[in-house]
Amino acid sequence: MLKKISSYYSILPITTNKLLLMSLLISLFFILKAYTNHLINDYNYPFSWILTSLKISITYLLWVILTPLVYSLTKIVQVLSLFKLNKFFQFIFGCIVLAVFHQLIVSRLDDFINFTNSGYLKSFFGHNNMVTLIIGSFSSFIELLVIIAVFLAFDYQEKFLTNQKALIASQLTALRMQLQPHFLFNTLHSIAAMIDIDKKNAQKMLSKLGALLRRILEYNDNQLVTVKDELSFIKDYLDLEQVRYKDRVTINYNITEESMPLKIPNMIFQPLVENAVKYGIIPTISNGEININIWLEQNNFMKEKALILQISNTFNKHKNYIKPDGTGTGLLNVKKRLKQFYDNRFLFDVGFQTQELYAAKMVLPIIK
Residues 272, 131: one domain? Predict the structure, then answer.
């Protein structure tokens, strides 16, 4: 029975604890108002904090008990339309019945409190009691409409946030779906270029590509992955490229241990690594170098500790080098995805640090 009752409260847009707190704060406000009114009018009888507090608190705490019924009326409002007059009348009738019921309980408890205090019990069908019931029901009706409005506001806020999250998730998925074919086509182009030159290594590259695609599928539903997982993917990718470029490239990793379990967007670093190979290693005859650095530091822009991901590559082009045309898909997607994940709480900077050293750097909030 208790489980069934608690289930009615679990579907509310506001937790029971918050409802209780709100009712107590409202009660406190009206208790102080009653006391102020007593002082202003200078009544010739003492103000009773206990009786006044009991009467007012019961009024608002009773609404907490009735919130499942109030929320059911809120659900009716959400489906109201000009063509559903029966729903409108159902809502109004429900509000009137609930307001009268609320005031009936409050007035009876109020009478009982007065009886315990003075020994006098009013007649339930007395004229004064009926007038109090009618006027009190009107007040309860107004209070009920306010509570319904609050519930509607919370419901619409929750739906808005849910829709926003769903929209962002779909946009991120679309961006990542653009990135994966881009990465795949570039890798297949590299393999195609090797087939006639070195079939053995081309086969080795295909095998590594299969492992990379398997990893992509494993993390396909994850918008966030750990730095460790992203780094593992990057190492596999660079191993693939090293098969092609052999001794032309040296890769250095400088990763702090504390950064490894932190979360970053899936495949956010891969386009930068791909650009480092495409524009830094391909034009180099020998002694090409890629440096991958990931660490934590106190950042002035963030005004807190931030995660830093940086990749730099040498740029020593040979005489006959012709710069390949780039689509800009990789860097554009990185910026868009960072914007979607972090809004404006990130830094992304790419450019030449010297004539022979190009670097890309991301400064991201820490997500554990």
Answer: no
